[in-house]
Amino acid sequence: MRRRIGIYCLAAGSGGAGKSCGVIAERLSRVHDVSLIVGEPYSAAQLESYFAVDFSRVRLVPLQLPVEDILRRWSRCGPAPPAARARLDLIRARLRDVFEPRYSSQIQELGLDLLINKNPRSILPRPAPRGMYLCMFPRDMKGQLRSDPTHGPFPRAYAWLGNRVAGMTEDVLDSYQVIAANSRFTAEWIGRMWRRRSTVVYSSCEDMGPPAPKEKMILHAGRFLPAWRDDYKHQGTLLDLYRGMTVLHRQGWQLHFAGTLQPGMAGERCLAELTRAADGLPVNFHPSVSFDELRGLYRRASIYWHATGYGSSRELHPRKQEHFGITIVEAMSAGAVPVALNSGGPRETVQHAVSGFLWNNLAELQQYTALLAADPALLQRLSGRAVASSVRFQRAAFEERIEALAESLLGRNA
Asked: Is the peptide bond before 226 cis (omega within 30 degrees of 0)?
């Protein structure tokens, strides 16, 4: 029996959340009527190209608040200083965060049987008879915001006020029949912060292989984001480290950065600053590449760098860590050997000195990279093991697990 399923992710055009939503939508649309509920006017062709999914049977449903539309127009009309436009984008994001529950009435009009909520840090109460909450990392319970002095006084005050108004509540959590975590790391923090049990469903990772002839290429893939964000990818940190690795420069090793731009001017500013800082270095940038272009980079890369969470405590600032790490697994599937920060999700996907390396400080990142660059036999051996290890995290396993959970919920009485 065909049922009506909504998949909810406002920023469905980038990042791991968007990727997972696209995969879920394609899989479930084979047997159900599926709506992908978004917060931007994406085109199906745009999402299909970036995520390599088939949306021929998927309906795109954009949502928005009236004030949000006004701010969007302001942020895109010029000439306005980039900093001012970035602040408007930030205000718009905070308004969306605070007023998210007001989307419920728009979603209820769809007459869904099941809502799958994959919106990061969502506080949307379930607007359908059945609901599944796919958590990338738990947000603080209302009134219990963790202090983070690294954000500075104003962003911290901004976050504190937003949490007082729009933190997670027991009622929202109780409205969903299933809470799923994207890693054991996230599941642990769901238990600690929400006092809830969750089922682990690792994020969807594409098979980016088979490996092509490897080049002297170090690759990093991740959105271009400002440094104050919790999910900052530390491209600047990696670029500064690479600047000093002159031996690799002379040997012909190049550093490549790929990733999407954050909507609005903030992402463009970050990319422009990185490009200026890389002037004169063997560094290449690939913003907003298609799926096929990204796959080509993975296949040719010998080493994959990952630094999300660097400089912050796993215990005090778990939100800043990599909660799973789709790009790491996808790099492994193409035979790029990962050298990733020893924290969060990568500890579940990378086996140290077997399928890659886990580093604790920049000296170790430099040491392991130099070791791989100087030993082709070691690089080849770890590359093969990385490919084999990536299989358990690939797309088919994710699709089957989500479909089983969805069918289980649809088989229950409301």
From this structure: no
Specify whether 259 is located in the same domain as 371: yes
Could you tell me if 181 and 267 lie in one domain?
no
* CA gap 181, 184 in Å, rounded: 7
Say which CATH number the domain at 112 has: 3.40.50.2000
pLDDT digits (tens, 9 = 90+) for 348-382: 999 999 999 999 999 999 999 999 999 999 999 99
Strand boundaries in 222-260, DSSP class E: 254-259
- 77 lies in the same domain as 186: yes
211 occurs within a structural domain: no
Query: Which of these, 5, 13, 107, 129, lies nearest to 63 by C-alpha position?
Result: 107
- Do 193 and 267 meet the contact criterion of CB atoms below 8 Å apart? no
Q: Are residues 102 and 21 in the same domain?
A: yes
Instruction: Write the pLDDT tens digit of every residue in 267-307.
Output: 788 899 999 999 999 999 999 888 899 999 999 999 999 99
In this structure, the answer to whether residues 194 and 233 fall within a common structural domain is: no
Whether residues 105 and 27 fall in one domain? yes
Low-confidence ranges of the chain (pLDDT < 70): 66-94, 145-162, 262-265, 412-414
Cα 131 to Cα 194: distance, rounded to the nearest angstrom: 17
Task: Give Cα 151 distance to the centre of its chain.
Answer: 20
Q: Where are the beta strands (DSSP E) in 11-145?
A: 33-38, 58-62, 114-117, 130-135
Q: 93 with 221, same domain?
A: no
- Interior angle at CA 12, CA 7 and CA 13, nearest 5: 150
Q: Rounded CA gap, 291 and 310, in Å?
A: 27
Q: Say whether both 284 and 199 belong to one domain.
A: no
Distances (CA, A) of 228 to 18, 247, 263, 328, 369: 22, 32, 16, 23, 27
226 assigned to some structural domain: yes
Beta bridge partners of 306: 340
* Residue-wise DSSP of 286-339: EET--HHHHHHHHHH-SEEEE-TTTTS-TTT-GGGS-SS-HHHHHHHHTTPEEE
Answer whether residue 48 is part of any domain. yes
Can you tell me the distance from the alpha carbon of 201 to that of 368, in angstroms, rounded to the nearest whole number?
Answer: 31
Q: CA-CA distance, 195 to 190, in Å (whole number)? A: 7
What's the predicted TM-score (pTM) here?
0.87
